[in-house]
Amino acid sequence: MEDIIVIVCIFIGLPWMLFHYVTKWKTTPSLTQGDEAMLEELYNLAKRLDDRMDTVERLVASENTDFQKPRLIADQEADNAKLAELDRMMKERTR
To answer: Has this prediction a pTM greater than 0.70?
Structure first.
């Protein structure tokens, strides 16, 4: 009797469990085209806001000599490396 239970578990139970979780894995929600469009829009908005902040900081620095420089220096290559990588990936994706 125990042998039959072991055989049933191996040949029926394990494949059923495997197929069950494979099906669950394939039906999990992933990024839709709407989500990708929203992320691209947010990325472009963040880029525009960054440009605006650079402009505001330059204007304040030109009018006020006591203005403390921001922690990150605008257009410094070390600070913009990740942004450049994102730009490259976005261009590759839209091709």
So the answer is: no
CA-CA distance, 10 to 17, in Å (whole number)?
10
Averaged confidence pLDDT in the chain? 82
**Contact predicate 57/70, CB 8 Å:** yes
In which residue are the tokens 């605008």 written? 74
Which of helix, strand or coil describes residue 95?
A: coil
How far is 77 from 85, CA to CA, in rounded Å? 12
- Cα dist from 27 to 8, 13, 23, 24, 86, whole Å: 28, 21, 6, 5, 29
36-71: per-residue pLDDT in tens? 889 889 989 988 998 898 888 888 888 888 887 666
Give the length of the chain: 95
| Domain assignments of the chain as residue spans, ordered by start | 1-29, 31-95
Banded pLDDT at 2 (limits 50, 70, 90): confident
